[in-house]
Design brief:
The protein is of the alpha/beta class. It contains 8 helices and 10 strands. The strands form 2 sheets. It has an 8-stranded mixed sheet, sandwiched between helices.
Length: 271
């Protein structure tokens, strides 16, 4: 298969349409693809836009690993990429309300979520990791008992934090939560994806990881349960960009490694 030309430039600021701005009537766009698309000829996919380096704004443009993977999938399907942002706390409700076609926003597969949406094959693996201030004496998960933990609401990290403490501070961005770790007395720890924390450390943030990942998550594309044809085409497109090297190119750009090339032996897979 011919490798697609570079399509990974930042998207124009006009791509930053709030999902909530649409209406159900917007879906009556004359789409004749049989894919039940929100807008004819486009794959409209959502992320929070607050999850660097997966989806974030840079100079007013929406960019990141998730955004570029979505663009590659769309182009493989012969569609125009149309990435948008919407609050994470309501992203599933917005998908089910036909505000966009898919979630390509680092949503981990869980049994609970699978009751509401249909998931594609995984498009990356990451570990749920504890991060603490650089001078913290927290050395293991057991040390989190009764501590103040920062997480994004309605995330898998929220569920994990509840196992250790009732003192949870909620954020709409993991990056903001990690920044609060550097403010004395504000947070004791943050639970988030390993790659997000490592990105913050590499940018000079005075934080550190604790131990090994608590689990491995499988991030996947989410669509409405009835959109079986769309899901099949997304899976075919994902397989194609993995096979032709496009996926690895995107992953190496953002992480200097292939996020699907992970040794899962002996590590709990989040379900």
């Amino acid at each position: 298969m011919k490798k697609k030309a570079t399509i990974f430039a930042s998207f124009a600021a006009t791509a930053l349409l709030l999902a909530g701005c649409g209406s159900d009537s917007d879906n009556a766009s004359g789409d004749d693809s049989g894919l039940n698309l929100h807008e004819e000829g486009k794959l409209t996919y959502a992320s929070s836009g607050l999850y660097k380096p997966f989806s974030f704004t840079d100079g007013g443009d929406l960019t990141g690993f998730d955004v570029e993977v979505g663009a590659a999938i769309a182009e493989e399907m012969g569609l125009e990429p149309n990435p948008i942002t919407t609050p994470w706390e309501t992203i599933t409700q917005s998908l089910l309300g036909n505000k966009f076609d898919a979630i390509i926003g680092s949503m981990a597969i869980t049994e609970e979520r699978s009751k509401r949406v249909a998931f594609s094959d995984p498009y990356y693996y990451s570990g749920g990791m504890i991060f603490v201030p650089e001078n913290s004496d927290i050395a293991s998960a057991d040390d989190l008992k009764g501590k103040t933990i920062g997480v994004v609401a309605q995330s898998t990290y929220d569920t994990a934090a509840q196992e250790y403490t009732d003192d949870i501070k909620y954020y709409n961005s993991d990056v903001v939560a990690l920044k609060d770790l550097t403010v004395e007395g504000r947070l004791d720890a943050v639970i988030t994806a390993d790659v997000v924390g490592y990105e913050a450390i590499s940018s000079g943030m005075a934080i550190k990881e604790v131990g090994d990942p608590l689990w491995i998550e499988q991030a996947a594309v989410a669509v409405r349960p009835d959109d079986e044809e769309l899901l099949n085409e997304i899976n075919d497109a994902l397989a194609a960009i993995i096979e032709d090297g496009t996926y690895e190119e995107i992953s190496n750009k953002w992480f200097d490694r292939d996020l699907l090339d992970v040794d899962l032996e002996g590590i709990e897979i989040l379900k």
